[in-house]
Amino acid sequence: xxxxxxxxxxxxxxxxxxxxxxxxxxxxxxxxxxxxxxxxxxxxxxxxxxxxxxxxxxxxxxxxxxxxxxxxxxxxxxxxxxxxxxxxxxxxxxxxxxxxxxxxxxxxxxxxxxxxxxxxxxxxxxxxxxxxxxxxxxxxxxxxxxxxxxxxxxxxxxxxxxxxxxxxxxxxxxxxxxxxxxxxxxxxxxxxxxxxxxxxxxxxxxxxxxxxxxxxxxxxxxxxxxxxxxxxxxxxxxxxxxxxxxxxxxxxxxxxxxxxxxxxxxxxxxxxxxxxxxxxxxxxxxxxxxxxxxxxxxxxxxxxxxxxxxxxxxxxxxxxxxxxxxxxxxxxxxxxxxxxxxxxxxxxxxxxxxxxxxxxxxxxxxxxxxxxxxxxxxxxxxxxx
Length: 385
Fold this sequence. Notes:
Helix content is 56%, strand content 8%.
């Protein structure tokens, strides 16, 4: 009994140590240099050139969707301008005292403020008092203000004078997802950088790198679904990836991904379009019923069907096929099915799908609304006979 108790305690200790050592992928693989930032090359090159030519502005505004690298770029920029031994590629050396202090989160040159919770006039006054103090190490004190659009109008006004005429050692980097909420007098005092949504192909490529680094085997189609679900945000993609790995272990299949994320399989949409082309109304209704029985939402289905029809339409032209954001094998299936569909059929079907999507929220009988829509689509080719 005593030995059993010791063994259980040992297992608990090992598990607790594993939990302590786990770091989420979004933090573990966070870029630490301009070169490793994904899909924002125009911005990183501009910042590197500014550092190289010693033409630093006193205030920057980084805006764009969530999870695309705004705060990460701000931190890398802050680290690089204080590095005493820059490389030829204008990257931080990671060896000088300033870089080491930054990498171990003990740098006094970089100050981060979350404007969502520090949005009062008093918070900004404390910041302006702090700005006057010169840095203990390095050239610049960098103030990163995240979610800056959350500041109150009074706080913005209190910040104006400091932002217009800061001390030589101070650099402000403001980050926001909603640029339109920032007053024009703030915008006019900043260099503005607009971050792009990250493409599905870029997210997929980075996820493949993370999977290999973690020793996880994952099907390319599964990675593509994760990238599409992330909607252009790398942080979201990495969080979803961690979730899937927790569910599946070291072997991740396409089926695991769509099951865990509650995504409708491509096969259903391919099957439905084949049934539309054959005017098989009864089969279409049975397929839709099967989808509902698997627990999928009707609105989710109709938007997915519209996306599938849109993908078939872009496959009709070799010039626009690059707009198809899917992997290799499924892309070939799209091309084959697109060849069997006429452009007019796809356009009319998209119109019906779009009307159904718009009417869905106000409809009292949502199932009937979708069934009428798919019956209309199934009868589009019937008119020719």
